[in-house]
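ok so for the tutorial part 2 we go from a plain amino acid sequence to predicted structure tokens. step 1 is just haveing the sequence, like this:
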Amino acid sequence: MITPRNPVPAARLREFIDAEAKALGFDAVAVTRPDAIAEAGPRLGAFVAAGRHGTMEWMADTLKRRAHPNALWPEARSVIMLAMNYGPDENPLELLDQRDRAAISVYARNRDYHDVIKGKLKTLAQKFAARAGADVKVFVDTAPVMEKPLAAAAGLGWQGKHTNLVSRDFGSWLFLGSIFTTAEIAPDAPGVDHCGSCRSCLDICPTRAFPAPYQIDARRCISYLTIEHKGPIPHEFRAAMGNRIYGCDDCLAVCPWNKFAQATREAKLAARDDLAAPALAHLLMLDDPAFREKFAASPIKRIGRDRFIRNVLIAAGNSGESALLPVVESLLNDPSPLVRGAAIWALSRLVERGDFEKNRARLAPGEPDEDVKAEWAHAMEPA
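step 2 — the prediction. this is what the tokens look like for a chain of 383 residues:
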């Protein structure tokens, strides 16, 4: 906890928060109560009970704390929600037509946003604590905090039919962070749903990950499959992934409210040139040291080289680019079973059956991994 000093009258706290948040680069700030999202807990419980969280066991493990903010910190009286715009300069959906290029989710094209935002939140929290005579705690995404419902309760926007936060000023492109405090701050009015009859985000989903409006099945979501899922990508979703190698922006990018999004953003969140549309051929050649160096400050580093190459191989198989064959074939001998299995699938999509059979006859008999054996067998089945 931060020890407060030099408290100021409560009437001036909100003015101070707004001014300091803007100075630090936040684009929006609002306040709510910890008990303002009573309906979020049961919704989360139903989501987990239905198994829609997939292998994200941490969601089930932290269910009680996540469902009730006061369970995380009983002394909290107010939650300051802050948002930072990361809207792209271009429509990320246009990259999906460039099959020899990799589509990386907009949020991951530069530094890890947790690092960017958390430092700013801590600075604001320290200044606030010194003036408010209150204790504070800072949270950014990785803690068991339901930030989207809290942001909606604070009036930063509303949770759209794709379950993400939508803002009338920034569309679907907002990073969120929160400051819990023991200070009593007048709450803002909650956000109002402006989705209307629009179904754009639901209808564009390549894998049909939305069972109904305002519901998501993570097990079918490309963001989950490429980031959270540790094993082989289920066959039923591989073709639909296209060239999406880390996350998926389709449901965000198609939101009509994006047309009102302001173009300014924190410079550290703008896309790195080498991650805006990287070539699949280059990414496939990354060994572990090269992967770590390239993604040293990126959220992509967290999934590790093998999972990343798995994703790139799925994109290679969807590319139709025969020029990728040499590097795909080299990965058939990769030390990682996860990579070898994905390479088999990519190869099966890029060569004629006879050429594929030659590789299978050479490599399958000596393969020790059961999942990789299954990939060889599956690839030989009739389409």
